[in-house]
């Protein structure tokens, strides 16, 4: 079509990426390149090396930014949503206490939901990422715990999370203390901080199923972190402090 030589050189592969990304999704182009390398390696032994070149890799990376489908971002939770969820799940049962505590920790601690619950897929669960009860410190006006690792901490250095009671509409310290007392009465010798009434670390679906009882699917796990960041920005926190 373009009169290029058939040899899949670095330039040819780079031009191919740009041309195809105008017609199909860049992720599909990535798969196409793998197929091309598989079919042509016998005739052109350097095709895989050319595919891994800086020019081709950066071209594909740039096209993914330019032409990929926009992400479907979930809506952030507001304080009003938190109050609505707290009313829907009163402190009348152990699992309600757990849900309420995770809710306020995720919102005011700016957590990703995956940092507080375990994945639904068993093969993705990692005990090293589980928050320990022994790391908790509770005072009258704040509480804290150690997050063993997170998405930006691949070396498991850990992070100290502190949540205060300095919020006009909700007192997260009171909600967390209620759960902690119930948890210690039932599971005094269990190491994990978050435990369901069955003695298991709650899963993502466990939390989301309760969230869905009150809020539509436009809200999900990341709504906690997004909502907390929005809340602190509205209170006048700087971007650096929120980060």
Automatic annotation (TrEMBL):
Keywords: DNA recombination. One of its GO terms (molecular function) is DNA binding. This is DNA breaking-rejoining enzyme. The keyword Hydrolase does not apply. One of its GO terms (biological process) is DNA recombination. InterPro entries: DNA_brk_join_enz (IPR011010), Integrase-like_cat_sf (IPR013762), Phage_Integrase-like_Recomb (IPR052925).
């Amino acid at each position: 079509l373009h009169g290029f030589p058939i040899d899949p050189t670095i330039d040819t592969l780079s031009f191919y990426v740009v041309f195809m990304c105008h017609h199909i999704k860049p992720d599909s182009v990535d798969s196409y390149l793998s197929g091309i390398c598989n079919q042509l390696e016998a005739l052109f032994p350097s095709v895989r090396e050319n595919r891994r070149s800086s020019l081709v890799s950066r071209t594909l990376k740039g096209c993914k930014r330019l032409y990929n489908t926009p992400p479907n971002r979930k809506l952030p939770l507001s304080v009003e949503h938190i109050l609505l969820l707290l009313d829907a799940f009163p402190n009348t049962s152990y699992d309600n206490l757990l849900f309420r505590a995770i809710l306020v920790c995720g919102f005011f601690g700016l957590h990703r939901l995956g940092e507080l619950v375990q994945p639904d897929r068993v093969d993705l669960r990692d005990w090293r990422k589980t928050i320990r009860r022994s790391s908790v410190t509770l005072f009258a006006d704040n509480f804290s715990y150690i997050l063993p690792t997170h998405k930006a901490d691949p070396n498991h250095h850990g992070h100290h999370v502190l949540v205060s009671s300095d919020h006009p509409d909700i007192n997260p310290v009171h909600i967390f203390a209620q759960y902690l007392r119930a948890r210690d009465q039932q599971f005094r010798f269990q190491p994990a901080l978050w435990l369901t009434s069955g003695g298991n670390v709650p899963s993502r679906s466990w939390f989301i199923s309760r969230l869905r009882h009150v809020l539509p699917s436009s809200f999900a796990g990341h709504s906690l972190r997004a909502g907390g960041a929005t809340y602190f920005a509205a209170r006048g926190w700087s971007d650096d402090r929120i980060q």
